[in-house]
Amino acid sequence: MTAAQRMPLYDVAFDFLPTITGAWWHFTDFLIYFMLLACGSFVIMSTFMAYQNQRKRPVIAIFVLKRYFQTLIVLQWLRIFSFMFTLLPGSSVQCLYTPTEEQLTGPASNFLEGRAPAEGNSDLWAPPETLYDIMFRIDPATGCGDLMFSSHTIFATLSVMIVWDYFPFKGFKAAITFALALLVPLTLASRKHYTVDVFTSLYVVLIVYELMRLKMPDYDTTQAMEQRYGIIFQIDKEDSLKYVAVVGGHSFRINEDQLPADFKEGGDDFTLPSGSAHGDYKGNFKEHYIHLRKESPPRSPKRGDLGGVSTQSIIPQVLPEASV
């Protein structure tokens, strides 16, 4: 890039926000780490404790992780293609270029043509110079050029979307939303991104998240669970916990709050033979399971017909039964 191309762009927000350095410059990174850690902690907690979201559906880790990483992969691919073709000059401290005296006093061609002389680089300027650096050097905090659009805002906004969509804790929703609102001006004040990078990221994340949820919904109804995953939910009249999930010919005890939201008692109840242990019975249990599968074989929904499948979350969690 020429010296002219290395000069930072003018941003109106920079006129209103003071430049932050030192610990405050790193605070934006720690703020994102906090949001990711908090969001991940609630995902892990959902494997040990049962709670339901505002739509009265059980919150299960596998569906939350699937939604997060599916959306993140699409967003990062869009971002990679975007910054590879925009190559905006970085405005952060490690990216700044100071014109040399020769460039300032000489003809304009010194500034507009040729590669920018190294004398104007910041002391922190350290671009990748070898193929190994390009492929394997990981530097998420002090890169230059990967601006459009902001990865800081991608992770933060996606975490907020996941929390609001899946988790029922009002206090945590307010806290993580406040963290996002604080992150935006701090990112601009640290000069890590331009205003266009941050605000583009905000609406792109929202659009991609909603499109992914429409095109790739969480199939969590009783019918969809059987058709797509081969999981049958039945009532076990001889078991004190009342409910079992039949997966691959084996039975697993589950709690009532792990059932699909549309599960209704009635119909053909699944009952294990007397004296048998869940998952260990090899005789009539398997025959009865095959009979159930023949009674309601899995099928793919017709085009345009979701067959009662909800676009909301979440796959019921199946807990293996302790040995009897």
TrEMBL record:
GO terms for biological process: ceramide biosynthetic process. Keywords: Lipid metabolism, Membrane, Sphingolipid metabolism, Transferase, Transmembrane, Transmembrane helix. GO terms for molecular function: ceramide cholinephosphotransferase activity; sphingomyelin synthase activity. CDD domains: PAP2_like. It comes from the Eukaryota. The chain crosses the membrane at residues 30-51. InterPro entries: Sphingomyelin_synth-like (IPR045221), Sphingomyelin_synth-like_dom (IPR025749). Belongs to the sphingomyelin synthase family. This is Sphingomyelin synthase-like domain-containing protein.
